[in-house]
Each structure stands twice: as C-alpha cells, then as structure tokens.
Amino acid sequence: MANKGNKKRRQFSLEEKMKVVEAVDSGKRKGDVAKEFGITPSTLSTFLKDRAKFEEKVREASVGPQRKRMRNALYDDIDKAVFAWFREIHAKNILVTGSVIRKKALNLANMLGYDNFQASVGWLNRFRDRHGIALKAVCREDSDRLMNGLGIDKVNEWHAGEIIKLIADYSPDDIFNADETGVFFQLLPQHTLAAKGDHCRGGKKAKQRLTALFCCNASGTEKMRPLIVGRSANPRCLRNVHSLPCDYRANRWAWMTQDLFNEWLMQVDARMKRAERRILLLIDNCSAHNMLPRLERIQVGYLPSNCTAVLQPLNLGIIHTMKVLYRSHLLKQILLKRHSSEDQEKVDMRQAIDMIAAAWWSVKQSTVVRCWQKAGIIPMELTDSGPEAAASEPEIATEELWHSVAIATCVPNEINFQDFVTADDDLIISQDLMDTEVIQGTEAGENTDEAGSEDEGEASSPQQPKITITEAISSVQKLRQFLSTCAGVPDAVFGQLNGIDEYLMRKVTQTLVDSKLTDFLQTK
C-alpha cells in the first residue's frame, strides 16, 4: 500500500503567495483561483488569512520575494542590525563580500552583548536567503573603477545605453524625477554668511529647517504635490489647519527617511493605479531611497552615483528656480512687515510651507523641460532656447527687490542675492547610519521618524485665531473692491478670485443644507 506521507509538500514563495491574494482581489472566484495556482481551498484560505503578514513583509522589504519560509532568525536583533547596515552600504554602491558581512555581523554581535554568536558560512547563506541578497563576484578593475568615482565616461555610457533602455517604453509625460532639498525657512538676508555651507546636523538651526521633496515629469506638464518634512508633528501654527498645498510629515531632525519616502512612493503608486498609468521614476541613491517597497505602477531607475550633479534634472535648475522664487516671496514679506512697522520679520512654518508650495507651482514648464534637456534625457531640439536661461529668468526680476531689502537690513556688501538663494544647498537631507545608531534601532526601537515636541521651535509664533467662513467670504468681497480700484488687472486674477468665491459659496451652501436637514430630522 502506498505511503501517502511520502508526498512532498509544496512550498510557495512570498511573491507567489501575493499573486494568489491579488488574483482573489481582482474578483476571481476562489475555486477558480485555487485551480489556477494548483492549491487546495484550505491553502488558499490560509494565504488570505495571513495576507496582512505578507503585505507587511513586502512593505518593509525585509525578506526577498522568492523566500518561501518566513521564520525569524535565531539571533533576530543581530540579523536586523546587519541588514540595516547592508542596506546603507548597498545604497552607496559600495561592494561587499561574504567575508565582510560576516566580520560586520561579529562586530555588531559583540556590541549587542552576544559572546557565543558565530558568523559561520551557514549563517551567511541563511542571512542571504532571508533577505534575497545575491553576492556577485566583481573583478578588481571594476571594483577600483566604482570606488574611485564614475567620471565623464560613466555619464556618457549611461546616456548611450542604460537611459535609452529605461525610457524606451515611456513618453515624456510618464518619466519623472524626484529629489529632496533642505530649506532654512526663516533665513534672513543679513544671516546669509552664517548659514552658508552649514550641514545642520543638529542644534538651534535644526529648528529653523525643513526638508522638501519635489517630483515632476519630463514634459513639464505635471508637478506633484511637494512633501515637506519638519521637526514638530503638531506645531502651533498648524493647529485647526485641515488643508495644506502640500503633504506634511515630521521627525526629530526634519530629514527624509526610508519610511517617509516609502510612504510617499506607495501613495504615488496607488494614485497611478487608480489612473491606470505606469510611470518611470528616476531617483538618486541616497540612504532614504535604498530599500523600496513593492510597487505595481512605478518602475524605479537609479541615477549613477556621484553623477547626480550633471544627470538629475531637479538639480540642474528646477530646485534652484524654486528657491529663487521662495526667497523672492520672503523678501517681499520682509519689505511689507518693515513698511507696516511689525517687529517680527521671521516667517512661521505655516507661512513658509505656503510660500514653498507657491514657488514650486510657479516654476514654468519651459524651465522644467530645459533642465531635463540639460540632463540629456530628452532631446534638445524640442525648444529653441538654451538650458541656462531657465534659472536666470526670475533672478533678473528680483535684483531690484534684493537691493532694497539689503539696504534696509544692513546686509554686508559682499553678500549678493545668489548667496542668499544657495545658502542652504549643503543641508543634509537624509541620515547615514553608524554602528551605534544601528544598535540603538534594534535595542530600543528608536528611529528618526519620531517627531519633536509639538511646540518645539514655535514658542515665538502666536496662535492664529480661527477664521469663519463668513469672514472669508467678506474678505473676498473686500479684495474684489480693492482690485476694482486698480488699473490693468489681468483677467486671470479675476478668474482665480471667482474660483475662490465659488468654492466658499458651495461650502457655505452645503453647510446650511446639512444643518437644515439635521434640524428637520430632529423634529421628526
């Protein structure tokens, strides 16, 4: 008689399990899905019951997609520490061998207090399998070339080969670039010299900084909502605020982190899925970008390391133009406050967020296209003017404004508007992990996503009174009256004012209808 116990049990990888779950989500009958994948109904039920675990593993990218077993390591905290270190090294394109990983594991194990841990070849193989890591042999020549920098030859090679393959299946409308920049949002012109070259790793200046993520496509037809990262989760200036022209997140250093970047990526991916679009996203390999979640509608392409200054469109004038426009808004605020004899020249975070978003939306499509052309990603023949013209357009218009503020605030003669604009270009926007920080993360669960206290750095900003919708409508009417006394007001300004008026009237009408309905139901 045949022994049924000898039948080999089939194992499924995480990727295969997710495909089964997605097939059920697509609307297929469970019986049909079970037949399609050759599994029993009970196995299908188990997959569906454990879907939350699968999704969490995919989201965290803590196991390779081909992994069939999800058992934790015996020394789980050592495993997590080594993997956190490996992700950091991998993001910088630093080549590592199995022996290097084993030595690092022993070092971290000693720091964690394990004397009996042995980083054997078997442990290394299991570590690789758990996380889907492939260690490839690299010849000495390739290693030296990578470690010594890429240079112009690598840029030309990327233009001639890899980028052509990446963009082959996408139109300029569906090719995007995302990048972060730091902003000293309260920087005054007279303090430009003190801020120039400051990396801002902590201290008082950390309270005056933000990190902003921007993303736009190659045709210049789509700029995504900025993501602003501050230090305070609930700053006083954002109380009673339910709508902002950007997304806002917070952590203790106002840096971009892997969790924040991955959250943003997942939101973009979901948006593209709803729109039935597929896009290519080009990014650099900073530490916040080095371990991405599973994405359905976004293909990610990494720019070669050490070459983003000449290959990343946002770095070639787009972010600079945004900063020119933001500093221009700031100069106008300073002039207005001095004219009205206000003591407080600094802006609060709410004003800064509004001005950063306004500056971003004001970057012209032609500026975006020229910077993509300068990066060599789209053809130069699409426009007639050169790429250098993009960044200079708004600067010419603000020189007179700069001189007025410089005289009024006693700015040293050696400081010019360009210095003011680029004062925060060297700000750190993401964290490089050290061994001690890796250990802290595994022992105490401490991470850089933990925000500062809600009013930290905001003590000097008075809480703004709540404005009623009636007051808002009255303000629009007053603005109409003021514009009627001005000559040469563009039609577009009146059109924007009409849009605001219509939005407010719809909102107040809906509020009145809802209140009447509530009163009617209460009397029944």
From TrEMBL:
Nucleus keyword on record: yes
InterPro entries: CenT-Element_Derived, DDE_SF_endonuclease_dom, Homeodomain-like_sf, HTH_CenpB_DNA-bd_dom, HTH_Psq
Residues of the HTH psq-type domain: 3-54
HTH CENPB-type domain segment(s): 66-137
PROSITE patterns: HTH_CENPB, HTH_PSQ
Binding region for DNA: 30-50
Keywords tagged on the record: DNA-binding, Nucleus
Region ranges (Disordered): 445-465
Pfam families recorded: CENP-B_N, DDE_1, HTH_Tnp_Tc5
Claim: Calcium is one of the keywords in the record: no
Predominant location: nucleus
Compositional bias annotation for Acidic residues: 446-458
Location in the cell: Nucleus
PANTHER family: TIGGER TRANSPOSABLE ELEMENT-DERIVED PROTEIN 6, TRANSPOSON
Protein name: Tigger transposable element derived 6
Phylogenetic placement of the source organism: Eukaryota, Metazoa, Chordata, Craniata, Vertebrata
Encoding gene (name): TIGD6
